[in-house]
Design goal:
Distance between the termini: 8 Å
Keywords: Cell membrane, Membrane, Symport, Transmembrane, Transmembrane helix, Transport
Helix content: over 70%
Organism: Streptomyces asiaticus subsp. ignotus
Domain Major facilitator superfamily (MFS) profile: 16-423
Radius of gyration: 21 Å
Family: Belongs to the major facilitator superfamily. Metabolite:H+ Symporter (MHS) family (TC 2.A.1.6) family.
Protein name: MFS transporter
Structural class: mainly alpha
Largest sheet: none
Order of helices and strands: HHHHHHHHHHHHHHHHHHHHH
Strand content: under 5%
């Protein structure tokens, strides 16, 4: 990298890490704040009745947002491959700001009946569209902006930012719980975090306008043919696309189980107060966030597969005992230790899953290759995890969900054991550097 390339990636990876992550933080703050505040606004959009039924309705809308993610993955992944990572990152955060504002001003069931739930649904669809493109744009930007031998470390900050967004949401929830009455939170207090999210996204929009495009993408800008970012081009890498879906399956179910669903589980099943459940989640997620760069750096030394295999084995064998113990947790310390144990296992997946996927594809189809298969897997497994959990609970078979999570991890474990190592895969440079086997080692400078 030289001074003669002013439009290339930043001289230090930290500028790229900040630029790629700060918007990701706001995106996932808005995404997760829906889940963490659902216990307060569930009654605002649906008729009064069974609390679990209300949560089931809001979880259903949460899941619908995931089914919009493949559309966002396709449209915004294609956009990122054809127009650049910077342009895609700016567009996604704009959509997220609009969706957060919609939720903040949505009318309640008592005011307009089910129209309020319809507004909530539209906002979730916009969020799904945005996040479907954000994940891939952020993953490709962070990966392409990294230096050789450090991609695992740099890309791990994607989940640092995702977790930080959730922590801010949970932190705000804890603050509101201690400064507002329960009635006030159920009445109007739940709108506050969505207003904060809309404002934060507007700020990030301004910050992302000053991002520089990655060197890897800039070097391929001359290849402006009709195949860039197309489904036809992605199908030439169908094996890698299928691999993304399979390796994501177990990880996304486990991640959403121990993050977005954990607070509800501790409150609705273990019987903890909402404030204590939120504090347990906050503390566990904070430590989980700190683990991501350590695990990402470790993958740069020993490879990606060992971490993925560790996650697969741990999640398959430990989910049932951990979830069972959590259902009977009667102290803050006990719930925290169990939650942290689960998240340590999940770190084997979260810290490196973005870089593994990005390393599978060449530049001209990398964003779409990461976005669409990942979004499909999340729609089928991650987005439905909370809904499936509540469905089992409502049917009086809550332990069935524990086995479901273990089974998903077992399927992904088979993939981890048989997939190739991607740590040494060089990022492609033009069509001449577009091999059929992305894992083949080549020597190019990043």
């Amino acid at each position: 990298m030289t001074d003669s390339a002013p439009r290339s990636q930043p001289r230090t990876p930290w500028r790229a890490v900040f630029g790629g992550s700060i918007g990701n933080l706001v995106e996932w703050y808005d995404w997760f704040v829906y889940a963490s505040f659902a216990t307060y606004f569930a009654g605002a959009f649906f008729p009064k009745g069974n609390d679990t039924a209300q949560l089931l309705n809001t979880a259903g809308i949460f899941a619908v947002g995931f089914f919009m993610r493949p559309v966002g993955g396709w449209l915004l992944g294609r956009f990122a491959d054809r127009r650049g990572r910077k342009a895609a990152l700016t567009l996604t955060v704009t959509l997220m700001s609009a969706s957060a504002l919609l939720i903040a001003i949505a009318p309640t069931y008592d005011q307009v009946g089910y129209f309020g739930a319809f507004v909530l649904l539209v906002a979730r669809l916009l969020q799904g569209l945005s996040v479907g493109g954000e994940y891939a744009a952020s993953a490709t930007y962070l990966t392409e902006a990294s230096r050789p031998g450090g991609r695992g470390f740099v890309s791990s900050f994607q989940y640092v930012s995702m977790t930080a967004g959730q922590l801010i949401g949970l932190g705000l929830q804890i603050l509101l719980q201690h400064t507002m009455s329960d009635d006030a939170l159920h009445s109007y207090g739940w709108r506050i975090p969505f207003v904060v999210g809309a404002v934060g996204a507007a700020v990030v929009f301004w910050l992302r306008r000053n991002l520089l495009e990655t060197e890897v993408y800039t070097e391929e800008e001359d290849h402006q043919d009709q195949e860039r970012g197309t489904i036809a081009e992605l199908l030439r890498h169908r094996k890698e696309a299928a691999l993304v879906i399979a390796l994501t399956m177990g990880g996304t179910v486990a991640y959403y189980t121990y993050t977005t669903y954990l607070t509800k589980y501790l409150s609705n099943t273990a019987g903890m107060s909402k404030s204590d459940a939120s504090l347990v989640s906050f503390c566990a997620l904070f430590l989980f966030m700190l683990l991501q760069p350590l695990a990402g750096s470790l993958s740069d030394r020993i490879g990606r597969r060992p971490l993925l295999i560790t996650f697969g084995i741990g999640s398959m064998l430990c989910t049932v005992p951990i979830m069972t113990a959590l259902s009977h947790a009667d102290s803050f310390a006990g719930a925290l230790l169990l939650s942290l144990a689960a998240l340590v296992i999940v770190t084997g997946y979260t810290s490196i899953n973005a870089v593994v996927k990005a390393e599978l594809f060449p530049t001209h189809v990398r964003a779409l290759g990461v976005a669409l298969p990942y979004a499909l897997a999340n729609a089928l497994f991650g987005g439905t995890a909370e809904y499936v959990a509540l469905w089992f609970k409502k049917g009086g078979m809550e332990s069935g969900f524990y086995w479901y999570v273990s089974a998903c991890a077992a399927v992904s474990l088979v993939v981890y054991l048989t997939m190739r190592e991607t740590r040494d895969a060089a990022l492609s440079r033009g069509r001449a550097d577009d091999p059929a086997a992305p894992g083949k080692r080549r020597t190019t400078a990043v």
